[in-house]
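for the record, two folds in this file. i put them one after another cuz i was lazy. first one right below, seq on top, structure tokens after. the second one comes after a little note so u can tell where it starts
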Amino acid sequence: MKTNYLKKAMKWASMGVLSFSLLTSMNVSDCGISITKPAANTYKVMADTVKKVEFKYDEAYIFLEGMAVVKIGKKYGFIDKDGNEIVKPQYDGANGFREGRAMVIKGNKYGFIDKSGKEVVEPKYDYASGFSEGLAMVCKGEKWGYINKEGKEVIKIKYDAPFYSEFADDHGGDFSEGRALMRKGKKWCYIDKKGKEIIKLDDAGSTFSENRAWISEGENEDFYSILIDKSGTKIIKTKYEKAYGFSEGMAVVGKLLDVPAGPWYDCGYIDKSGKVIVKLKYGDAKSFSEGRAAVRKGVLWGYIDKTGKEVVKPQYAETYDFSEGRAVVLTGREGESGIEKDDKYGYIDKSGKEVIGFKYDLADGFSEGRAAVKKGKKWGYIDINGNEVVEFKYDEAWRFTEGRAAVKKGKKWGYIDKDGNGIGE
């Protein structure tokens, strides 16, 4: 049992590093009036003015709190935004900084460093999550507890592995809004940051978001989804078989349909009082982002606003969250055997206007005014108006954070700024 849980925990650890990846299949990606093609000499001007990118890393990740994880050979270290080596590559694994601390691995033991590279928590744990609200979850043997940023074990290491219940939808064990979901044997509970068990459960629950969490009760036909607040007070008790966390005051809920070859749902949205705001009439639905949510009718996707109005009629094969006023979409149509996808991505604005043309083989959401897009086999970057501002010459590309993006050429990685200049010369 220990091995299985630790393997799952390791998966989460690696996702901690990769959680802001540009595209993993089509799930991490986050349309079209034609835009003016760049002048023929655009990239020549770029070539004359940009600072050369130094490709020397075997792996490179996004900047978090002014630092980025990099790998040289088999070891991981950290650089700052000017490319200076702050922590020499010496670790067998590492995650980005959260709340001034970064998880590192020596051998098969987990600890933490500060931004000077000092090991403030000796690598001695069998697993450790990143810090959240001042505490990090750690594991010794088969038991779990919490440490503070100085490494003091402030919540006793006595709980069973919190990962991957049927209803726990995300980072089981991480603190969110002052609560963390933990497990003792077959029982679950929410604890506060002093370790007090605030809400005791027979089954698992979700992470708190916007002062609400979902818990489950019963089985099969008697299964209920119960919405609670942080005191454990029940807001509603209903038979939703699908229930997501709240985002912008709304949550996706769904009822299972009694049809073959499922599962199939009717989905809609509720507010934090449990009131149905958008009727359960969609085949699938996603959380709200920037006042819009993607919904599916049949096989095609569109967007609604918070009143339930369809501001973008269902017409796309794929849709992603809005970021910086733009959403990546892929055109398609309903065919005899289901969805027929086109092969190019573009962008729409929140009114549904196609503002950046359908000409990209892959596309990421906007971050800091830039989006990574792929033409053929190469990646480059566009700005919010669709201008191609970084030449298409990279084999892989991450999204911008803190003014920097990791890019790959051949087998090595380097970093650029938003104008395509290299860093670390």
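(here's the note) second protein begins now
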Amino acid sequence: MKRFITDDTAQDGIDRRGFLTCMAWAGTGMLWTMAGGVPRSLSFGDVAGGGALDPNDLFFVQISDSHMGFNKAANPDVAATFQEAVRRINALPAQPAFLLHTGDISHLSQASEFDAVSQMVMDARTRTGRVFYVPGEHDVLDDAGAQYLRRYGGGATGKGWYSFDHSGVHFIGLVNVLDLKPGGLGNLGAEQLEWLQRDVRSLSASTPIVVFAHVPLWAVYPKWGWGTDDGAQALSYLARFGSVTVLNGHIHQTVQKVEGNMTFHTALSTAFPQPAPGTADGPGPIDVGAERLRSFLGLTSVRYSARAGHLAIVDSSLAGTPVAVAGGAPETAASRARRAKPIADDEVAIDNFVFVPPDRQVSVGTAVTWINRDDVPHRIGSVDSAFPLGPTLDTDQRYSYTFTKAGRYRYFCTIHATMTGVITVT
């Protein structure tokens, strides 16, 4: 079985012949060790039976995509599963130095959602008491990240990026969920890229690097927005280092890739699963049933041994069973009911991360209404600011705008930028 991508014919990070076998292998809960840039794998059982960690090792835990405030069928109680993740952290054989949270702390950027996570994460026992955050797109919905920065951005640069050192490892937290371009992927931007280049310039090539951001910095599945447009440029600044580990969230499942000296790893969510790439019409939340849910959710433990010179990553589910990988799932009754409603001639439905119809034609003076039928929020934005930015739309919410001039109005979802549409006014 292939264990990492070897046939990258399109140079986009996807092995099209071995992708699904890579997914299946990554989904079983594996440990990666890195020595001189060469990976090898061990089963989770091997790790669990290995006894206490060397006290000189750096050990930390990554959690991701808590989506506090989400309450749909895929998981009506995300607080309970987040608390279970905290209990799992406290039951680990060694106490982690700190936690990394790789974004989507909240579901709708509400103060109460951030407050709830901050309160619950205080119960996690770590040696430093620290949690290092980067934002997800759900954390910056209505204010370009201003509330996130007030809460978590102390000491950060620009719009929230920063770095720190711990136990000989250089950590870099990046922000790739702001200023998204229509039809595009995650975005770092020129200012952050220049900062990154300066940040690592004086470091020795032997310094181990851990870079973390919400959206994958490599092209996991661009059709669903699972990648970063300028991620390759950021990674080029790290190419000279002997050991680089890239930790991301966003896709709610484990995918791993090794490319030279770089190990790429995406984390499980603590809230709800999303489908494996290409196995469903879109990347929305999947209802796998309450009895199976915790097999799809979990956390990531990371260890660095300066003595052995390697870094190891292991995923564990909240159920204590091998990590499950979600495929497409039948629609829930509520979802079917929403989609069954007819769409009027002056309406655009948002169904499974697609605008329906993608090109709505109306006459001058028509008020067009967008209706969100998905279980996640969307927001309507004009490509060229030809009409006002709409509010964040949760499930069943609407936004209307009256078009008073003829023309072709291109728009996109400012949260999920691969979603694009057109209103043609005659």
